[in-house]
Design brief:
mainly alpha, 2 domains
């Protein structure tokens, strides 16, 4: 009997089965973009790992950034109200710091 479908490779790490609901159009696009020999599961697993790596790589950078640098970055953001930055700089006593000159205008 001839096997039908994508070939499966044995894995050293035990895997668990999960169920994910995807739209039919997303599944069609994924199937269209994958070659016959590529595994949908492996593609999805790799995408999840890449996304998690980006998140874990970014998190320490923010955690390790000094509060003054974060406050200075908030000054330049349009979606951050001035009162938020003013509260931070007054809490830390940075009211006369040149990084926050824009708030005085």
């Amino acid at each position: 009997m001839k096997k039908v479908g994508r070939p499966r490779k044995p894995s050293a790490e035990k895997k668990e089965i999960i169920s994910v609901n995807l739209t039919a159009s997303l599944i069609q696009k994924l199937n269209h973009d994958l070659s016959w020999s590529q595994s949908r599961s492996e593609w999805i697993e790799r995408a999840i790992k890449e996304k998690l790596a980006i998140i874990s790589d970014a998190a320490p950078a923010v955690v390790d950034t000094p509060t003054k640098s974060l406050a200075a970055a908030l000054v330049r953001r349009e979606d951050c109200p001035n009162f938020v930055v003013r509260a931070i700089i007054s809490q830390y006593g940075w009211v006369d710091d040149p990084h926050f000159e824009d708030l005085k205008k």
